[in-house]
Amino acid sequence: MSRVTIVVHSGDFDKIMSALIIGNGYLAMGDSCTLFFTFWGLLALIKGKLRKSDMRLSRMNMAGIGAWMMRRKMKRANVAPPEKLMEDYRALGGRVIACEMTMGVMGLSKNDLDDHMIDEYAGVGQFVKASQESRTTLFI
Amino acid sequence: MSRVTIVVHSGDFDKIMSALIIGNGYLAMGDSCTLFFTFWGLLALIKGKLRKSDMRLSRMNMAGIGAWMMRRKMKRANVAPPEKLMEDYRALGGRVIACEMTMGVMGLSKNDLDDHMIDEYAGVGQFVKASQESRTTLFI
Amino acid sequence: MSRVTIVVHSGDFDKIMSALIIGNGYLAMGDSCTLFFTFWGLLALIKGKLRKSDMRLSRMNMAGIGAWMMRRKMKRANVAPPEKLMEDYRALGGRVIACEMTMGVMGLSKNDLDDHMIDEYAGVGQFVKASQESRTTLFI
What we know:
The structure is a homotrimer.
Chain A: E1 4-8, H1 13-28, E2 33-37, H2 67-76, H3 82-91, E3 95-99, H4 100-106, E4 120-122, H5 124-132, E5 136-139
Parallel strand pairs in A: 1-2, 1-5, 2-3, 3-4
């Protein structure tokens, strides 16, 4: 049972950051949390992906800030990068579901994904079940 | 009264898919559901729109996958297309509200929209009322 | 304590409009509301920004409608512009938190932001606290 369930639909760097920061925030303040990675969000679970600087931002027109630039600015501001946030999320007991339907559509197998980050491979039914037991459900 | 209320603000093909798959998931597992189509989301209610392959994706840079390509990949993976998901949603008793304010801003009349998919034409007040009675509210 | 908490992650003109219209809708119908402006959303709190016509739309390909065009269409449809919606939001008692982490990453100081619109400068902890006390939490 999770108090918080978050659909991670977006694969944009800044949205993945928001999902992980918010997820860690809930965990740090006593809630349990399930992240359901689906559609573009699932791509963040591909082996090595979170460490890469080629992730897209949801908007690029901020004086040319790309994901690489944002990583630099985050580092300077002492904000952890996504791979570290995910490590923390897992260490704090955060649960991760990889969407099987998306794997099928995108032709990804379990081998493509980083199974250290994943508790379950499941469909929308598991998401709904988690959400029905949650106080808070978000779509990112 | 709805247990789940979802604002569909985005008109992107993949977000519309997520909204309908999630909506159907809740309905299949015993919740009632209201979808409030507003801003770009409202465009999905234009007659014939859901069947078209010209819908935009929220991101295009995945090796050139456009909505057409995604439809093909979905078909191969036995994922129903949006027009079928909407049919299922309606058959399962899902409720749909078309945002009147957006119709006014975009110059759309009831004649432009597919009224088989719509229960009500209403404003933000109806959305808030549905949300206040819901366990779960999402913004997509 | 807030009955509704909304993360405003996006800085797109139409998403800011949705956030403010929905926030005002909840306030008008008896809920309290907290808006947590973070990532691109924080840019909407920069002095004078909400009045400008240079805000981005989350999609541009609707027959060339940009934010300027949308402002015109909204005016014709008697929809208030974002600066007026924010005024109403504040007059109705809506609470605003500016995300300190984002300020650090983007190099923005309190001087850059319009403090008439802001109650608190805080981190994800304050957001989580508001959300834990809320019936409804949205991510926009």
